[in-house]
Amino acid sequence: MGIENRVCLITGSASGMGKQTGRRMAERGAKIVINDVVAEKVADTVAEFKKDGFEVIGKVADITKKEAVVQMVNEIIEVYGGVDILVNNAGVDRTAALRKLSEDDWEITVNVSLKGAFLCSQAVHGHMVEKNHGRIINIASRAWLGGPGQAPYSSAKAGLVGLTRTLALELGRSGVTSNCIAPGLIHTPMWDEAPEKTKLMLLSKQPTGTLGDVDDIANAVMFFADDEASFITGQVFYVCGGRSLFSG
């Protein structure tokens, strides 16, 4: 039971929420695959995890490219025999007023946040179905409900919710669950870099008046990843301090 000895691939996990999720899952005995596009960051994270005694490998791959995703998954299968848990964590947020957004802003946001999740899910689901067990956990955002200046990001995350529900319907009879976590304001390096005026504005709309922590997301991922969560699928789980209760 639990996640011990389960093989977990986390995209975009060389830093931030993905990295902390990997660490927490490794502490529970999972075998972790760190993925990112920056080779140095992957190497550093893998070295850090190994130093702490965790079972981990790193894979540098652009998840917006099908060939790269297929190769990555095949290499993981060669090492570990399969992927039990997929956490589609990688995402990009290009924020601006609609009139100022470029086609590139749209494409990179949608490709990383949504297309990447589709390609990774497609690559691993066959092996999960063969085992009659699997967990696909998508990291969306409260922003899927809509947000000013977030046309590409909100659209991509809304698409991720739709993908989650579709996978739950398609794969449920094969022992594979698909669920979605929608974080709100989380204390990450991106938050630290934000202008003070922006921070104050965002916190003013936060029912708790506080930020969440990366461990809040890691805890939610582990809940869905656990063997005991096998009857939960197709759900959107808000980890946002109540921010999802109203839009804007």
Automatic annotation (TrEMBL):
The keyword Oxidoreductase applies. Signal peptide: none annotated. Belongs to the short-chain dehydrogenases/reductases (SDR) family. Residues 6-184 form the Ketoreductase domain. NCBIfam families: PRK12826.1-2 (NF009466). SMART domains: PKS_KR (SM00822). This is Oxidoreductase, short chain dehydrogenase/reductase family protein. It comes from uncultured Desulfobacterium sp. Keywords: Oxidoreductase. One of its GO terms (molecular function) is oxidoreductase activity. GO terms for biological process: monocarboxylic acid metabolic process.
